[in-house]
Specification:
The structure is a homodimer of 130-residue chains. With 130 residues, the first copy, chain A, is mainly alpha-helical. Chain A is 47% helix and 11% strand. Chain A folds into 2 domains: 67 residues, Winged helix-like DNA-binding domain superfamily/Winged helix DNA-binding domain (Arc Repressor Mutant, subunit A, Orthogonal Bundle); 26 residues. Chain A binds a DNA duplex (30 and 30 nucleotides) through helix 4.
Chain lengths: 130, 130
DNA sequence: TTGACGTATGCCGATATAGGCATACGATGG
DNA sequence: CCATCGTATGCCTATATCGGCATACGTCAA
């Protein structure tokens, strides 16, 4: 067996940095291939090939305008990536690990039978690294 | 040039579904290799190899316990993925907002007891598979 | 020690990739 | 019709991959 095709899903398509750059560029608005070629500073066939991959996973859409092809971002498939990685958000902050420990300690101190006050509601703190 | 190594970064490491499964499993707590083998239902060498990749990008850590090796999640590197994809979140939300607007308009147009005018909404969708 | 256990590694084969280069192709303007 | 522009595609090479299988390695129990 070989590695999964880049066109398998957004995860694989987006693993390539150049393709991320393309998406980043398109996030600023529609662009023609030539536009992207200039923006990325790589050969045109390279860009066209990456665009093909992105199109196949539904991350970009195309529109014909005269002899040019205008590409646009279609972020939908990224949602799978987002949804997956989002679940790990709370895990990468050491500070948060510390907080976890503290909370656990508190819970323990309070003793069994006591409920911690609705910890479910405080979900959206932004845990940044110092 | 070939495709970037899976050990290049979290993006590449995580493109493999099996490795995501491993991380998901480890999110529930430390696990030995045998544990993971059972959990995933694949051959042991396969698991060991995936774990190697994950270790090389810093997504897991190991600890020796007797003859077993206990792996733990180390989510840090996922932050790069999260930070990148997070920027796109609002784009599919916007889409929904748009949809909401359209639906609202339709509802308003229809009014109490009115029919919606045949919506010619469907835009592009050029999902092609050559 | 011997042997069983838990893991890691080596080798193989089939498959794809990314980019370089040349070229094919459709649209447009003389 | 012909030349040119804007893009896509084909061919090529070097390189990795993932999984299967066998096996090496370290640890623990008799």
């Amino acid at each position: 067996m070989a590695r999964a095709a880049t066109t398998t899903d957004a995860f694989n398509a987006v693993a390539e940095p150049r393709r991320r750059e393309i998406l980043d560029a398109l996030a600023g608005g529609e662009r023609s291939v030539t536009d992207l070629v200039e923006h990325l500073g790589v050969a045109q066939p390279v860009v066209s090939k990456h665009l093909r991959v992105l199109r196949e996973v539904g991350l970009v859409g195309v529109r014909d305008e005269g002899r040019a092809r205008i590409y646009r971002l279609e972020a939908g498939p990224l949602r799978a990536v987002y949804d997956w990685v989002k679940g790990y958000e709370r895990l990468w902050s050491e500070r948060f690990d510390l907080l976890d420990t503290v909370l656990e300690d508190l819970r323990a101190e309070r003793g069994p039978g006591q409920q911690p006050e609705s910890p479910e509601s405080s979900q959206e703190d932004d845990h940044d690294q110092p």
